[in-house]
Amino acid sequence: MRVMAVTPHGSWAGSPQFGLRDLLEQSRTRPEKVQLALTELNRALQTLGIDRYRAAGIVCESAPGDDAGRWVVTLECVDDPAKTCSLRWSGKAD
Questions:
Q1: What is the pLDDT of residues 14-58, one digit of tens each?
Q2: How far apart are CA 62 and CA 33, in angstroms?
Q3: DSSP assignment, residue 89?
Q4: Residue 70 in this model has a pLDDT that exceeds 80
Q5: 88 has which bridge partners?
Q6: Which of 43, 56, 75, 82 is the most exposed place for a label (fewest CB within 10 A)?
Q7: Half-sphere exposure (CA, 13 Å, Cβ side) for 30?
Q8: 3-state SS class at 3
Q9: Of the candidates 38, 18, 17, which has an alpha carbon nearest to the alpha carbon of residue 27?
Q10: Cα 60 from Cα 74, distance rounded (Å)
């Protein structure tokens, strides 16, 4: 998922919605972008044919002044929303 997460929005033929890194980095100063990133992530999952799971939430764990953002993305099972998986992700380039 790392490659897809850093793919600029609109540039990956597999799913034009992917490009989360840019949206999440923008959300550090514009919190309303988190909801847009959540919407775009769910659209990307749909275009990829992933229909058993959906992104239920994205929470920023970064402190003001951090070089790069850190987020927790929570996925939930569509058939049983009590079944979740959380992924920690850093926007810092390797």
A1: 555 566 777 777 777 888 888 888 998 898 888 888 999 999 999
A2: 15
A3: E
A4: yes
A5: 72
A6: 82
A7: 10
A8: helix
A9: 38
A10: 12
Give the pLDDT mean for 49-69: 87
Percentage of the chain with pLDDT > 70? 76
CB burial string 28-39: b at 16+ within 10 A, e below: beeeebbeebbe
| pLDDT band for position 76 (cuts 50, 70, 90) | very high
Classify the phi-psi angles of 15: left when phi > 0, otherwise alpha if psi is within -120 to 50, otherwise beta: beta
Instruction: Give the residue numbers spanning the domain of 10.
Output: 2-90
Alpha-carbon dihedral of residues 41, 46, 49, 55, nearest 10 degrees?
50
Q: Would you place residue 2 in the very low, low, confident or very high pLDDT band (cuts 50, 70, 90)? A: very low
Report the C-alpha gap between 79 and 41 in whole angstroms: 19
**Number of domains making up the chain:** 1
- Is 48 within 8 Å of 40 (Cβ atoms)? no
